[in-house]
Amino acid sequence: MKLLAVILTKNEARHIRDCIASVAWADQVLVSDSFSDDSTPDLARAAGAVVVQRPFDGWAGQRNAALDMAAQLGAEWVLFVDADERATPELAAEIQNVIETGSEVGWSIPRINFIVGKQPRHGGFHPDTQLRLMRIGRARYDLSRPVHEVVALDGTEGRLRHPLLHYNYDSWPQFHAKQRRYAAMEARILKERGIAPRPHNFILQPLREFRRRYLTLQGYKDGWLGLKLSLLLAYYYGFYPYWVLIRQSDVTPDT
Length: 255
Hints:
The protein has helices at about 15-20, 40-45, 60-75, 90-100, 170-190, 200-215, 225-250, and strands at about 5-10, 30-35, 50-55, 75-80, 85, 105-110, 110-115, 130-135, 140, 150-155, 155-160, 165-170.
């Protein structure tokens, strides 16, 4: 098997069939499911995917387990695609070409993001490249980064031209729910590292994140949407993890 497409899922019944259809050109599709309590596994099997289930222990752990499974299946390459992403025919052709002719062991793929029906072009949302195509045995995810995971490559990395389409959020309540989950995971990481919140964290961290999103990454060019996203992500990335940490530990910030 040359290429295995891997999709990590948890209650993705809405997306899973379209996602599998978009990578059906791969030699095989593997769905690694974190014990969904909706119809995701059944829909995935009906769409032709192999389904395995594994308790969720962070995205890095899930992806490493999928790499191990791919090696057991005899795959040479793995393409990771999230359930809310779609591979275009142009991307499919480009991937098939580079795994046959390229010398790189990993490839980053740009993403076009759609948030509540709109497409932000700045603020870190474009081109939003993600290392998703990798040769088996030459890539591993850093387990110290379970959120916004990072790949360590044993070799060179290339960059593809054609994008994945990423349908991030259908509604603002969905956006808030997912950001709260991310922030809770970040708080757990901070706690495991023995990092205690200090008063200045609640001011400086949100300001830094807002400046990065809105000014450095030019979120202001997306108008009202760019301002809204920059403010919300400053709150969820800069303020909220420390607030969760305080609530979990039931202590006041260190002075």
